[in-house]
Amino acid sequence: MNMPPRSPAARGALPPEGARSALGRPSGLTLMWLKFAWQNTLRNRRRSLVTVSIAALGTAGILLAGGFALFTYQSLAEAAARQSGHLVLGQPAQFTSEEDTPLQHGLENVAALRERLLADPQVRSVLPRVEFSGLISNGDKSVVMMGLGVEPDSEFSVKGPFLSMRAGDVLASGVAEPEIMMGDALARNLKAQPGSSLTLLASTSDGALNALDVRVKGVFSTGVPEVDKRLVYADIATAQKLLNSQKVSTVGVFLTRMEQTQPAQARMAAANPTLTVQTWEDQAFFYKSVRDLYNRIFGALGAIIGLIVVFVVTNAMSMAIIERTREIGTLRAMGTLPQQLLTTLSLEGMVLGGVGALSGAAISLGVSVFLYLVPVEMPPPPGSTKGYPLSISIEPTMYLATIAAMVALTMLASAWVARKTVNMPVVQALAHT
Asked: Helix H segments across 324-337?
């Protein structure tokens, strides 16, 4: 039976003389040689397919893990900025020293400070805050609490729905009767519900003990059980009345965009030299801890995956080069320089790594888009009762850097395993069996 003739490259034969001479020119990395590199990878398709598949899975794994980490960072950063404000202004001692009495390091004349801050066109809102602690009692039982005095209308309007209401309603500004919102675990502990009357007890700013009767307006959950056991929200006027002071602890500044944080910090620090201006990141200890932990975990994971891909490509190219040692010797006998052969074999590694990296990027992109279209809920993390959506960020810079790194690693691996064979004496290479 007559078989159709195969092309020289398909048979593993030498490329034509014109193509070989192209290696001697500065533009040796021509499409023609890239084509021959591609055809050489097809000599053993099963081996090439395995190599490309592992490179694709490795690339997809790196991109998916990196995208998940980026999404986590972005989510935590937005949550932290929404909680404290993009910038937080206070007395220097407020951030460095413990107070002997409540509001010892508080801010005075907040109205004038707010007016100056709101003059900045990038400032969306300014929210004062009073932090206090003490006891909350139902008459029979007293429990330690952590209190936050806020401006309810502005607070819940600017921050959005950051609390899950279990019962009742959120606080409102301008109410004559003192009202509070409390965590659901604290409410269960005191057997309180919306409409219940409780008493707040705390030390005033001059060291005396003060008590204030309040009514429960709502019960909420932050998703963190330990916080829900202690947290109480009150109107800022109620908190100042309890502490017998008109000061506030800090002022949170909300900007129109996250990217404006650093320039705005510099402007406000220059305009208010007696105050300390911290960013949301300075206040976000949980965010920094998670970021440091994930950087180490995913950094190590990426390095391991990269090593696996390099070893697989190295193994595939080693086998291919051993099988073609006589062919390499023939090319050397015809005048091809070792550096030219090294470049050609590196191109084969680039083809394997490049196809695998592009395939892995396509897989990662497909999975990321799928998760946007079909949301998947992750279980609650340790210390929380709320799950979160599994999303993968699509960052073009990360995709380009990963593909470039994968191609560079496979090219270097191919060149490293080929260097000995291409420098082998011609007679020894031709006699290789």
From this structure: 325-333
